[in-house]
Amino acid sequence: MKNLSYVILDGNLTADPEERTIAGGKSLANFTVAVNHTSNNQEGKDKEDVSYFEVEAWEKLGENCVEYLKKGSKVTVMGNLKQNRWKSPEGENRSKIKVTASTVRFDSVRKKESKVA
Fold it and tell me: Which CATH number fits domain 6-106: 2.40.50.140, 2.30.130.10, 3.40.640.10, 2.60.40.4070?
């Protein structure tokens, strides 16, 4: 049986998505989603907080994100958690968790700019 690491994020982009082509010619878009949430502080009162999640979207999904999303766009991202591990130049173990998007719902869409001839 496979294990599951599925996540749903509902938030806003902190910057325009960035696209790049990796070895093998695949396109990859990266962006960060800010998710606002409320939690209780030590006094039991509601506290507004924000969490930031790095997202990667591959191929056509990523290309659509670059074309239609911009900083501040509201999105719902569904995907899997992925942990990258590496050693720093000082030899310390490092890791980062990202979301690999399987679906990105564009909750606010930017209209394509029309060019005047």
Answer: 2.40.50.140
Longest dimension (CA), the chain: 61
pLDDT by residue (tens digit) across 53-103?
999 999 999 999 999 999 999 999 999 999 999 999 999 999 999 999 999
- Confidence band, pLDDT 50/70/90 cuts, at residue 116: low
The answer to whether 10 and 34 are in contact (CB under 8 A) is no
- Give start and end residues of each alpha helix (H) in the chain: 59-68
- Percentage helix, strand, coil, to 5, in the chain? 10, 55, 35
Q: Which pLDDT score is estimated for 45?
A: 77
